């Protein structure tokens, strides 16, 4: 961890904070345009192409439109919490970037000041990111509760259960990185990946994290808090104008945050891709690492968009079963395996090639386990009660008059003289 953290002039810290804010806002505008263009390409549509070159100003036009819309507050809403909820959702999304490293130490242009391309760092920086991002779910839950709508409340409850479930799996996937790097500092984790990026020896953790980050950000196919087919619009059903735009901004910044965290922990952070650093000595110096870092995060953003344009939304019970029955147990078993492997490596009883084989076999087993078809329970045989089955054809159909008469025993009294006849 650099000795400059905590000892920099105030204007340097303020400059870096403003630059992070500007980059995240501009990156959000770009990602919205990028998602529309990619999904349009997948669906053989045109996509935004009118506002600005290639439609690049479409996101800005949408932001202006949201700002000029009428701001409504529903009658049944708890107004104070209703207004504070979107702020509580978007502020933690920005705070998480305080410990994300963009690059190495650089010299600020037109000055002699040397500073790392990172706002600050902590010995427990990764835990700080988990703590800050988990606060954002309070904004979603309070938005659903304060709206005075059943659909919004159900969306907020879904989001809270979803974040709790997948944050456990996400945190467990970090443990193996801590075991390899020997630290929780983001800058030191990047420095530990100088020779080998961690997604290679820790590929099972990487897969678990990628699945968990999609669930953590409420993105398709895990966008159950916003399921329009069930909940109209989910937790933000009763929001409009700038308050709705804040939820939108928080979602896209959280996408970039989890992508940046994946880049930092598993893909070498701001370091140049394989082969470039060997050919070009200055690839990891100056401001070039910022380009490598943003390029890696953009790859994860494309992965988010690809999932949205490809997979249908999961059922809620399937989604929760994936987290609790598969991801968490697999993470626990993999942590034990990594501890055993690290012990063998420290005693020079395991070489690098054998480790790659172990990681590859474990990854194949995990992927095969996740995609195994569920074992169907045998359906009980129908019992003939003599009554017509309204669901026999797959749809509820009322019985015909003849069927109703046959199923209902006659209660009319026997005519007089019947016995004599």
Automatic annotation (TrEMBL):
It is found in: Cell membrane; Membrane. The keyword Transcription does not apply. One of its GO terms (molecular function) is quinone binding. The chain crosses the membrane at residues 12-34, 81-102, 122-143, 164-184, 196-215, 244-267, 287-307, 319-342, 354-372. Keywords: Cell membrane, Membrane, NAD, Quinone, Translocase, Transmembrane, Transmembrane helix, Ubiquinone. It is an enzyme of class 7 (translocase). Its main location: membrane. It is a multi-pass membrane protein. Signal peptide: none annotated. One of its GO terms (biological process) is aerobic respiration. GO terms for cellular component: plasma membrane. Its EC number is 7.1.1.-. It catalyses: a quinone + NADH + 5 H(+)(in) = a quinol + NAD(+) + 4 H(+)(out). Residues 376-421 are annotated as: Disordered. Pfam families: NADHdh (PF00146). PROSITE patterns: COMPLEX1_ND1_1 (PS00667), COMPLEX1_ND1_2 (PS00668). HAMAP family: NDH1_NuoH (MF_01350). NDH-1 shuttles electrons from NADH, via FMN and iron-sulfur (Fe-S) centers, to quinones in the respiratory chain. The immediate electron acceptor for the enzyme in this species is believed to be ubiquinone. Couples the redox reaction to proton translocation (for every two electrons transferred, four hydrogen ions are translocated across the cytoplasmic membrane), and thus conserves the redox energy in a proton gradient. This subunit may bind ubiquinone. Belongs to the complex I subunit 1 family. NDH-1 is composed of 14 different subunits. Subunits NuoA, H, J, K, L, M, N constitute the membrane sector of the complex. This is NADH-quinone oxidoreductase subunit H. It comes from Aeromicrobium marinum DSM 15272.
């Amino acid at each position: 961890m650099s000795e400059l953290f905590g000892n920099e002039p105030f204007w340097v810290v303020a400059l870096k904070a403003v630059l992070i804010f500007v980059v995240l806002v501009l990156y959000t505008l770009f990602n919205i345009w990028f998602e529309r263009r990619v999904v349009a390409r997948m669906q053989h549509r045109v996509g935004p192409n009118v506002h600005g070159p290639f439609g690049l100003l479409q996101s800005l036009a949408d932001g202006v439109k949201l700002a000029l819309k009428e701001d409504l507050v529903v009658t049944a809403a708890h107004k104070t919490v209703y207004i504070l909820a979107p702020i509580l959702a978007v502020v933690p999304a920005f705070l998480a970037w305080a410990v994300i490293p963009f690059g190495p130490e650089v010299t600020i242009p037109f000055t002699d000041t040397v500073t790392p391309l990172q706002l600050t760092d902590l010995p427990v920086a990764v835990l700080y990111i988990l703590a800050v991002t988990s606060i954002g779910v309070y904004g979603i839950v309070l938005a659903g509760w304060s709206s005075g709508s059943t659909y919004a409340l159900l969306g907020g409850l879904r989001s809270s259960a979803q974040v709790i479930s997948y944050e456990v799996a996400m945190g467990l996937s970090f443990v193996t990185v801590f075991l390899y790097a020997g630290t929780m500092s983001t800058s030191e984790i990047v420095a530990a990946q100088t020779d080998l990026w961690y997604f290679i020896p820790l590929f099972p953790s990487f897969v678990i994290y990628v699945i968990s980050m999609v669930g953590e950000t409420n993105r398709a196919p895990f966008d159950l808090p916003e399921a329009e087919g069930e909940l109209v619009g989910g937790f933000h059903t009763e929001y409009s104008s700038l308050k709705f735009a804040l939820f939108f901004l928080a979602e896209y910044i959280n996408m970039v945050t989890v992508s940046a965290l994946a880049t930092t922990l598993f893909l070498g952070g701001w370091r140049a891709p394989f082969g470039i650093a060997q050919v070009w000595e200055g690839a990891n110096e100056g401001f070039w690492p910022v380009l490598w870092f943003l390029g890696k995060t953009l790859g994860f953003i494309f992965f988010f968009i690809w999932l949205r344009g490809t997979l249908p939304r999961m059922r809620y019970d399937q989604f929760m079963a994936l987290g609790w029955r598969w991801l968490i147990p697999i993470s626990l078993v993999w942590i034990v395996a990594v501890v055993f492997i690290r012990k063998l490596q420290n005693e020079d009883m395991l070489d690098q090639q054998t480790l790659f084989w172990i990681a590859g076999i474990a990854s194949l087993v995990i992927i095969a386990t996740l995609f195994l078809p569920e074992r169907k329970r045998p359906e009980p045989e129908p019992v003939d009660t003599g009554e017509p089955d309204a669901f026999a054809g797959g749809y509820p159909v009322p019985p015909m008059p003849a069927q109703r008469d046959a199923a209902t025993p006659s209660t009319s009294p026997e005519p007089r003289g019947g016995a004599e006849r």
